[in-house]
Amino acid sequence: MKANKGILPFQGLLNGIGQVYFTPSVMTSTLLLLAISIASLALAFLTLLGASCSFALAFCCYIYTNTNTNTNKSVDDIDSGMYALNGALIGLFIGNFFGVTPLLALVTVLGALVTVPIAHIVFSFKKYRGYTSAFILTTWLIYIIQSTFDLSAFSAPDSALMPLISIEASSWFNLPTVVIPLLKGISQVSFIENALSGLVILVAIALKNIKHTIWIMLAVIISTVFSDLIGASNELVAQGLYGYNAILATLALVLYPRISWPLILLGMLLSCLITLGFHELSLLPLTAPFILSTWAVVYLSSLLHKRTIS
Questions:
Q1: Which residue, of 92, 127, 157, is where some domain finishes?
Q2: 78 and 213 assigned to the same domain
Q3: Do 220 and 300 sit in the same domain of this protein?
Q4: What domain range includes position 195?
Q5: Same domain (yes/no): 16, 126
Q6: Which of 13, 25, 248, 15 is nearest to 136 (CA)?
């Protein structure tokens, strides 16, 4: 981010969609919205609503508190879509887990707004980056409230998220059976279980960064095989629920300085083990395994780096 450069509202908002896959750009974000729309138009609306609310609040806070100290970092986080990212994930979570209703849209707005002050704190971390921590903490709070009080408002009709197009085994366009879980692993980063959405997402990332695409394919294949070896539920593996944290951990570590490829592979495997632990304890993992495995590998890398210097 160049000094004295102003915030670009539409770019900062759209970048939040692309940041779900560490690929902030208008083109990539537009294709990712298309992928979400394939799963559900209502879900795409909720995603944009959440991203817009968190971005708008972060932007207003920046304008209100704009001083000559540390403004470049704040502008960079807003422009790159890091604040909008958490709001987008709130919309994706609520839409996929509970459905899309006017009341749930209000919950999305409130949840997206809550992520902003939390994100402001975690984005101050230097060595251990905050990533989607604000989304995780806010979503766990929403989930705890819903589970504790068994709120009927969180129940939506099954038809609310009917996909526009499907490429499941019985659909008009068939892919090899072994490929479908891999594509679902890619789409599950957005909490979507739709192979066609995963294919569109893969194309979107390939147009932006072919290196990331290769790493994503490696992550989803290795995590699928490894999850089967460690005894993960075949149903959950088939739904792609072990692939998405491995993808996120891989992309995060690829972007980290001084992280070697063996450590990136370790991050993939570690994310699967942590995800298994969450499932065994009947806890909602969300993107926590990705953050925990990334932090663990960064810590290990720093230890190795210190030993090399000494």
A1: 157
A2: no
A3: yes
A4: 177-310
A5: yes
A6: 248
Q: Which amino acid is at 233?
A: S
User: In sequence order, what DSSP letters do the residues of 197-262 get, joined into one string?
Assistant: HHHHHHHHHHHH-HHHHHHHHHHHHHHHHHHHHTT--HHHHHTTTTHHHHHHHHHHHHHSTT--HH
Q: How many residues does the chain have?
A: 310
Q: What is residue 172's predicted lDDT score, i.e. its pLDDT?
A: 46
Question: 98, 108, 111: which is closest to 151 by C-alpha?
Answer: 98
Is 302 part of a structural domain of the chain? yes
Half-sphere exposure of 181 (CA within 13 A, CB side): 21
Residues 22-80: tens digit of each pLDDT:
998 888 999 999 999 998 899 999 999 999 999 999 988 888 776 545 556 678 888 88
**3-state secondary structure string across 195-213:** HHHHHHHHHHHHHHCHHHH
| Residue that the structure tokens 């944009």 belong to | 48
Q: Determine, yes or no, domain membership for 170.
A: no
